[in-house]
Specification:
alpha/beta, four-stranded parallel sheet, three-stranded mixed sheet, 9 strands, about 15% strand
């Protein structure tokens, strides 16, 4: 709720961002080396910088989360909708977006209800809409429910769906969303969890975020752990400082394989990622380490 969010420093990052120059906000996110949390792991700051100059720009938040056994965005949508809204409005200010769309999977009934309630509260509070917090910056946010198509988790499939067409990927190159996206205007598509990190980065600085983790894998990340573990669930851990073995076996995380059985294999980053055998369980939760071993962290789902 708005009351609890504001009581825990909610919307302070937005107020701070609005007192900065948009390029300064972009620079902090760039300094943070925030990798996209949706699957591809593309740096958010670099994606923002690729937008072509244009009077109309769109920001689309990908909350479709269609990858099997991935449920961290679902939890963020239901449990912390204001954090997503705040991150989205900060991003809109940073990139000069004229409209924000938060695209949520149609099956997330409770999440859609809570996100819409939070958005209504944010409008009443002055955090969204005209002249946000008296800054002169205005932007509208629209919640758009999907219709349960796996392919709409792909950023261009999502854009097709937003335009009212059949969800189907666009061929790229030649046109990336940053050049020709929604309604053929420059568009940034970012994941829900990516947006949830933006307020912390603005409040604490990109350098503080980059101190967490290691190499290109900075900050913390949420992982959806399921399968034959004693305690499945979402766990937020520091990237590159935690291994798959930690996540599966540690008492504070998965608590080991059920019935004391041995690990046979695991999926490191959603059903689209190549599987690993038990010999790789010591790998760090790092995009570089997992990539070099032949797979990817992908959507953050470990089965």
């Amino acid at each position: 709720t708005l009351e609890r969010y504001v009581a825990t420093r909610g919307y302070l990052a937005l107020r701070k961002a609005l007192s900065m120059h948009p390029e300064e906000v972009c620079a902090e996110v760039d300094k943070a080396s925030l990798l996209g949390r949706g699957g591809a792991g593309f740096p958010a700051g670099r994606k923002w910088s690729m937008l072509r100059p244009n009077p109309v720009r769109y920001l689309c938040i990908n909350g479709d989360e269609s990858e099997p056994a991935t449920f961290k965005d679902h939890m963020l949508i239901e449990r912390d909708p204001h954090q997503i809204i705040e991150g989205s409005v900060i991003t809109a200010f940073a990139i000069g977006a004229t409209q924000v769309f938060i695209y949520i999977r149609g099956e997330f009934g409770l999440g859609l209800e809570r996100m819409q309630t939070a958005l209504n509260e944010a409008y009443s509070y002055g955090a969204v809409g005209n002249d946000i917090f008296g800054s002169g910056f205005s932007v509208d946010v629209v919640i758009h429910p999907g219709a349960g198509a796996y392919i709409c988790g792909d950023e261009t499939g999502l854009l097709e769906s937003l335009e009212g067409k059949r969800g189907f990927p666009r061929i790229k190159p030649p046109y990336y969303p940053a050049v020709m996206g929604l309604y053929n205007e420059p568009t940034v598509v970012n994941n829900v969890e990516t947006m949830s990190n933006v307020p912390w980065i603005v409040l604490n600085g990109g350098a503080a975020f980059a101190k967490l983790g290691e190499g290109a894998s900075t900050g913390t990340r949420m992982f959806s752990l399921s399968g034959h573990v004693r305690r499945p669930g979402n766990y937020e851990v520091e990237m590159a400082k935690t291994t798959f073995a930690d996540l599966i076996n540690a008492p504070v995380y998965g608590q080991g394989i059920r019935k004391g059985n041995a690990l046979k294999c695991f999926i490191p980053g959603g059903a689209s990622s190549p599987w690993f055998g038990p010999e790789n369980v010591g790998l760090a939760l790092s995009a570089d380490a997992v990539g070099k071993a032949g797979s990817m962290l992908g959507s953050g789902s470990i089965v």
